[in-house]
Amino acid sequence: MKTIRSSILCFAVLILFAPLLGAQDLSKYRGISLGMKLPIVLKQTEQKTSDVKALHQSPALIQELTWWPPTLSGSSYQADNVRQILFSFQNGELYRMFVSYDRSAVEGLTEADMVKSFTAKYGAPILPTTETNASTTPRPDSEDKVIARWEDPQFSFNLVRTSFPNGFALVIYSKQANAEAERAVAEAVKFEEQQGPQIEADRQKKVAEELESARQKNLKSFRP
Questions:
Q1: Is residue 127 one of the residues assigned to a domain?
Q2: Which of 62, 101, 184, 217 has the fewest CB atoms lying closer than 10 Å?
Q3: Is 65 within the bounds of a domain?
């Protein structure tokens, strides 16, 4: 009887945790994981610091890196169906990936085809009833929409129909880090708008000073 009870208990535990055991890691794509430091991403994608674009400096450092996977045979990375990946960093830590698929690779595929393909790997998705917002797209004014979503308490994995004809993309982000980054960006934009007139005045002053300096120099050296 004791053996039977133990067997029943083990069976129940397996049923309970089977979905978790088979679940995919929603924080990783093409060997790149959310939370990775910028230098590691640069090394894995074979890019340079000069390829990184700083969007905002304060209250958090927000940076972007665009990567076009190589297609040459023998390379450590193969492009597969990916055209490019836009990496977003907050204070040097990866919090979001926007994966664009090559149009020729998805030509003719319907939304149902794409969802079926991802379902085969990631399991049944959550099908959203509303369009996506700034949390899942690289631009607040984007017309892209989420057609399927996979998520866990920490990460969100979104299949997106882009505004380009027959375009599809994948948006992966850390829920907590993405929310923090959005707040930081909103504060940065507000501050920059407030400081805009002064920044422009300082720029014009610097241009005028450089022009006057060149004028004085040329007054002394110019000979008709």
A1: yes
A2: 217
A3: yes
Residue 161 contacts residue 110 (beta carbons within 8 Å): no
In 16-81, the DSSP E strands lie at 28-29, 32-33, 53-56, 62-67
Q: Taking a C-beta distance cutoff of 8 angstroms, is the pair 156, 17 a contact?
A: no
Whether 207 is in a domain gets the answer: no
In a domain, 128, yes or no: yes
Evaluate if pTM is beyond 0.70: yes
Predicted confidence (pLDDT) per residue in 7-55, tens digit? 444 444 333 333 433 457 888 988 899 999 999 999 999 999 999 999 9
Tally the domains of the chain: 1
The 10s digit of each residue's pLDDT in 167-203 is 899 999 999 999 999 999 999 888 878 877 777 788 8
Amino acid 182 reads E
